[in-house]
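Incident log entry.

Two folding requests arrived from the same account within the same minute. Monitoring flagged them as a possible duplicate submission, but the sequences differ. Recording both here for audit purposes.

Request one:
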Amino acid sequence: MVKNRLQCATFLARHSKGVIVSEQYQSADVLLVGAGTMSTTLAMLLTQLDPEIKIIIIEQLGEVAKESSDGWNNAGTGHAAYCELNYTPEQQDGSINTSKAFDINAAFEMSLQFWAYLVNESILPEPHNFINNAPHKSFVWGKKNVEFLRKRHQALSAHPMFSLMKFSEDPQEISKWMPLVMKGRDANEKVAATTMEIGCDVDFGSLTRNMMRHLQALPNVRLLLSHEVDGLWQTREKKWDVRVVNKIEKDEYDVTAKFVFLGAGGAALTMLQQSGIPEAAQYGGFPVSGQWLVCHKPEVVDQHFAKVYGLAAVGAPPMSVPHLDTRIIDGKKALLFGPFAGFTTKFLKTGSVFDLLMSIRPKNIIPMLSVARDNFDLTKYLIKEVLQSFDKRVETLKHYYPEVNKADWELAYAGQRVQVIKKDLNTGGKLQFGTEVVISQDKTIAALLGASPGASVAVKAMLEIVESCFASRFESDQWQEKIKKMIPSYGQSLIDDEALLAKTREYTLKSLNIVK
């Protein structure tokens, strides 16, 4: 079915190359690109609100959640700002900015509520299959850093969200919190640490695959694996025509949808640009690769039970904040250290080396050049990371595990991340570290860009899309009642309402078996 000149030209070009185009023309209320945590969360929200909604999910890989959502492609930290020091920057006057920490904590609480609801409704399996308790701790050394951590603790622990946070400069007490970190350390070194015992380790791969199993059993949801998007354009009727390629059968067909969500990790930026919406023009992307050191040796793994975060090196992106983590994936415990960042031109692990080049547009080239000019420290840091040997990586680990034996560790590759580059009136362009939702003015297409805190705040991010793009239905009594059943604190402030926070945490921690 040919709808306009552009599609006609595309159609003829494909046939002239001998490509078979299927006669089948499918339609859906919602088309989701990517079968990771974001798309799956959005599909879960929509199908809970309206079981009759027709959804098609397109995934270029042969399995669900094998890119950024896969267990070993991310740190698995349930980002709640308990231990991530980059969420609480020190201001020029020496004070600690806590606003981002409160926002992220509240967003993660929304995710916990939704997961608890899905467990209680028997949609998700027993919580230990995807989420487990792993205390969140911060660790620093040196007089200046110790003072920073003390001020951070004072600023955060004064609020009910962080009132359980403990601080210590006592090496013996810290040794009880994190034995591997303190064993073999210089007794005269000035150190400090904080701990929050209600932190989590999340296997986002398992979480996503379990949600997808439920979705696939629904009559109005269709998952297309080994399919990729090869173009999209908007019709006069304000619907979207999406050209879909079956990578196995080598045929193509069009899907028309009333609403499209681009949740394809780093590839979402390229597709957003292909859509031609004005909102996409100001965005560029800066891809960063990642690696971990991983230990599976039980004698070592059993001595550490926490996610221990430190301070990032000068010039490092926030995703490169070093941390020594307990990981529980497929029921097996391991230790992870890193990440070690590197420069790449790919937007996905399975992407093309031309991804970065192909993302350059006339309207984003100035922001991208401005970022290159203003982030020399980042460039220098990434080059240094790329050139690091295995032994140098182990030397970095020694700051968090002084008695490390390199024979116990191996190098593993993490997922790709694409940091957002956005037009800035003052500097020309700004490199943004975080997660950003982009929605078209007519509310027919949306995309999720950026990295950390990423999947941890998926529920809040996807709710923003539902609120904006399905506004008329969202305000109905039926949808409002359902939303408040799924997320009891919805529409209220966990930051300002101490009683609500206490009630919410009691519900989620018990439902998800995070604390006994």
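Request two (distinct sequence, not a duplicate):
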Amino acid sequence: MRLVKIGIASVNTTVGAFQANTDRVLDLARKMAAEDVTLGVFPEQVIAGYPAEDLVQWQGFIDHQWPELERFAKETAALPLVSILGVGVAHQGVRLNCAAVVAGGKVLGLVPKEKLPTYNVFYEGRTFGHGQPGMAESHRGVPLGDYLFQFDFGTVAPEVCEDIWSADGPMRRRAYSGGELVVNLSASPFRLGFWETRRELIATRASDHQVTIAYANAVGSNDGLIFDGGGFINQNGRPVLETPRFQQGFTSAVVDLDRTLRLRTENTTWRVDREDWVTAGGKQVPTLDCTQAVKTERQKLTYPVPAHRSFFLPAPDTRRTARVALCEDILDALSLGVGDYFEKTRAFKLFGIALSGGRDSLLTLLIAHRYAKRARPDNPGSLIQAFYMPSPYSSQQTRDAAETIARELGVPFQVVSIEEAFEREKAAAQTMLGETKLTPITEQNIQARIRAQRMWNWSNSCGGLFLQTGNMSEKSVGYTTIGGDLMGALAVIANVPKTVVMYLLDYLQETTGYEGIRKVLAKPAGPELAHDQVGEEELMPFPILDACFYLHAGEKLTPSEMRTALTAMFPEVDAERLGGYVDRFVRLFHQSIYKWVQAPLSLHIGNLDLDRERALQLPVVTGSAWLRKA
């Protein structure tokens, strides 16, 4: 047996906080060594924080990373531990995103990332250069390139994040060259349902290439990107370990690397594929002999046996239901995003929410409170200030709902009427218009803008983080006010569809029993900017609205294609009415792009959202003839 204990770390970093980030890695490395871990795996760009975006273009930003890497090596010199961690280097005019191999007080090698994602929320091709197959260079006297590393426990093949997502990545040639343990350093953002995708991909790669894979992911939030952490160990397709998500720390497991080699000998397909690769002229990846760099201590390790003491019977099923998994993942991700933004910006003292008594502001409040319970468990409400700002159209029902949930959460609640200001602003606007009559929509917008102005005034004076509360569905069709409810310092649920907002609130009502949630849900959703407003009556049923958004913005279907899909999805709705909904959605969607670009920073939880700098990049000015059926 060749037993190896692998520690998978999730580290919450801040971009540019080089010393603090390294201190966190050092702390985990020492704890790993104290628990007899042989190999410690840390996330991508863990020294610099991720994503650094265009900061990578500053030489000073790159130069600050190497001294911290050397400090890490020096302070772990006495540990019988091999560490692999992410670092950026500047090499001959190119920035490289590398996995650094450290042991015995030295940086033993650097392996650059080869596959640079430049899609969705990623822009790495803009700033980093590609590692290359066969690359064999030196950086500051350290081997830099396409290398394997031989230690006294086995042969390690480091790689970085996207390299594992490509079927044409470096894993294949490194496995054929003798790599047994593939170590992938990742900073992969949270996306709904993506955990299962990661698990399946890693299992597939480990099986295809007959290797053990150790995968570590970043945790925490930087700007609007949320990293859920979590990691995996998979041996030749068999799951060994899944680590906790949404929290910093490490988890470890023991594997027998002799098993990886034995399974290769049994797998004739892998052997034949390797022979074909060699025959076709496949170039061997060189192996650096690091056996003298560190003597690992593995004598205390014991053979990995199932906790339930059976190799044949299934372990107890601890999986969550699909509903619980969806809701808890979203709530955990968004509360992590809110909390990290609050803490890492170092600009705010508390949260401020304009609580309307409606669904969106309620969910935003509950997410902020979820974070506050972790940050101040003794008095979470002290981190939040809620304001109810009634106009002539506000109902007693929504006021009661807002007051009730604030009381249940222990959140300070203040009523500040905008009626007088509303009348004053209407009069001023009418004076400016002269003979032109003030429109009903302008009256609605005036109310929203007064509320936003007051929230900004409060924020400026007390250091409050003004949370924007709008959802993705209504934002997609411009059912929001520039300078009003579109405003805020951070948009918490701007990428959460309205149907999901309501689903989450139903879940939270069931799990918490808050009376305030029940009261909010008892009234039809509407902005209360005019008499008897109901959102679905002014727009369309929210399930149809969200379906339109997904089909048009996500699947890129034209209006005629959308009608076909929606007819199958909603057979109970008249086809002509569905067609009207589609036309209305598409028209409003493209007319509203100019609003999105003025919206605040938003938290990302999926592959599809309306942050123009991150996901759906659409021109503000565009013709619409192409939308009509040819």
